[in-house]
């Protein structure tokens, strides 16, 4: 039996106060409205496959969240599709079961017989998106001078490895042992 959902809400009223009871979930979820990343577009649907289990403190959600993410290559800016898969294990606390000193984590609470997985989806997807996506491991990138895509062909720009701000130091002669290879 799979769980029912409305947008990002999972109905779990039948599992409340029944520790050990569980249900498989196989859900197709929308991307949270407030989820925005520069240069990344999460394509719907977001899939959540796993289990919701009733525990003494609330509901435990375990499974895998997956989605396709449209990105731009960090070197050449070509469009890249990245399959994002992340394992999730999160406790949605029952406020009635918490001690006074326990703190309720915002977005991870059991409320009125349902779980709102918006925060779970947002947090999991943000951590699954690569920091520097590449279209290929050997991507040559763009020419720093003219912007030509070096994966297509070489350009006619002359490479000057020296940053112009360091030009005044080009002729500097350091005493032996004080250069980049020295220890002095």
TrEMBL record:
One Pfam entry name: YceD
InterPro entries: YceD
Protein name: DUF177 domain-containing protein
Upper lineage: Bacteria, Bacillati, Actinomycetota, Nitriliruptoria, Egibacterales
């Amino acid at each position: 039996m799979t769980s029912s959902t409305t947008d990002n809400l999972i109905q779990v009223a039948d599992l409340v106060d029944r520790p050990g009871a569980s249900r498989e979930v196989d859900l197709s979820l929308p991307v949270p409205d407030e989820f925005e990343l520069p240069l990344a577009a999460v394509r719907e649907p977001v899939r959540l496959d796993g289990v919701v289990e009733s525990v003494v403190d609330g509901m435990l959600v375990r499974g895998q969240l997956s989605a396709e993410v449209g990105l731009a290559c960090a070197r050449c800016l070509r469009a890249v599709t990245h399959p994002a898969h992340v394992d999730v294990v999160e406790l949605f606390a029952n406020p009635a079961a918490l001690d006074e000193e326990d703190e309720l984590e915002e977005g991870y609470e059991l409320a009125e017989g349902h779980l709102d997985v918006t925060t779970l989806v947002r947090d999991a997807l943000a951590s699954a998106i690569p920091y520097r996506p590449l279209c290929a491991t050997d991507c040559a990138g763009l020419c720093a001078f003219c912007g030509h895509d070096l994966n297509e062909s070489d350009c006619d720009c002359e490479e000057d490895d020296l940053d112009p701000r360091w030009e005044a130091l080009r002729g500097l002669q350091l005493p032996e042992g004080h250069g980049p290879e020295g220890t002095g």
